[in-house]
Each structure stands twice: as structure tokens, then as C-alpha cells.
Amino acid sequence: LYVMKGILLTIILLIVSCQREPMSWDKIDTLIEDKFSSVEHISIEDFIAETEDNDEVLIVDVREAEEYAISHIPGAINLTDPVEIAKLAEESDKDVIVYCSVGYRSAEIAQKLEKIGIQDVANFQGSIFAWANADMPLVDKKGKTKTVHPFDEYWGQLLDKDVPTSTSKVN
After folding, report:
1. Alpha helix (H) ranges present in 55-101?
2. Which one-letter DSSP state was computed for residue 39?
3. Burial 128-167, CB ≥16 within 10 A → b, else e
4. Count of CB atoms within 10 A of residue 25's CB?
5. Can you give the pTM of this predicted structure?
6. Among 13, 19, 26, 133, which is most buried by a count of CB atoms within 10 Å?
7. What angle do CA 166, 82, 147 make, to 5 degrees?
8. 61 burial class (0-12, 13-18, 19+ CB within 10 angstroms)?
9. Which of 48, 110, 49, 53 is nearest to 85 (CA)?
10. What percent of the chain has pLDDT over 90?
11. How does pLDDT run across 99-121, given as a tens digit for each residue?
12. Could you tell me which residues come within 8 angstroms of residue 118 by beta carbon, excluding any fewer than 6 positions away?
């Protein structure tokens, strides 16, 4: 009986996961802005304007190390702990812009940073996916790259078809 219940549950979860709605930027942006309404969300144009030739901005990639190793925005550092980010922001006296794959995880981190007293923080709307879709420069430890870690196939729908992806672990 327990085996049959386990099999039935597995089948139901498989069916539900296969019925996920296709992703769209409008849906994801609205979801993120609604859930993290206290956070400042900046567009790719504003991100470029804020960071171009500006040493007073700390660009933080809050994705996991494996994702960051595949590629990241030039000049970004990889930190996932809001307390570490806050400490670095306070020590450097810099504004903070956080990003992830699409902006959800980074919006969550930005909200946590605000709660611990970091006021000059913004979330890069669309994050590295928007950056890659706009054919902006990406780097890895060897130099320039075009490859992006899609997080998973579902979220990877938001990457343009011509953006190369990799979920490989990089050492």
C-alpha cells in the first residue's frame, strides 16, 4: 500500500511539474516587483549608467559559485550571504547592485540588505539573463565568454535561443 501511494505521489508530482506555464519576462518582472515592492529595481539601461566607469558601485552576483564560475558580469563579486555583503558595502562605502539569474534571488537579498540597514541597494531587473540577451560582455576565470548558467531548464526559457548555456560544474 505504501509503495502504491509513493508511486501515485511521484506520478502526480511529475504531471504537475510538466504543466508549468511557460515563462515570460512580463510575468516574472511583475511577480518580483510585487513580492519585493520595497526594493529598488533597476533596468539594464540604469544598470549600465550606474556602473559604467563608476568605482563607487559594488556589483554583487548572488548566484551559487557554480553559476558564477560559468559566467558573470565583469567586475562582479560572488557573495550569497547578506551579512557579508552588508559588511563589504559598509567597509567600502559603496552603493550595492545585486543580481542573479532573473532577479528573484537578488531581490530577496536586496530586501534582506535593506532590513539590516543597507539603504543604497538596488536589484538588477532581469539580471544576468537580461544582460546576456542584450549581448553584453560576460566573463569567466579565463576571460570573455558568451555562456550562461540557466539555473534549470524552466528558468532557462527566459534566455534567448542564441545564448549558449551550460550547467556543468567548473573548477
Report:
1. 65-70, 82-92
2. S
3. bbbbbbeeeebeeeeeebebbbbbeeeebebbeeebebbe
4. 15
5. 0.84
6. 133
7. 15
8. buried
9. 110
10. 75
11. 999 999 999 999 999 999 999 99
12. 85, 86, 89, 90, 96
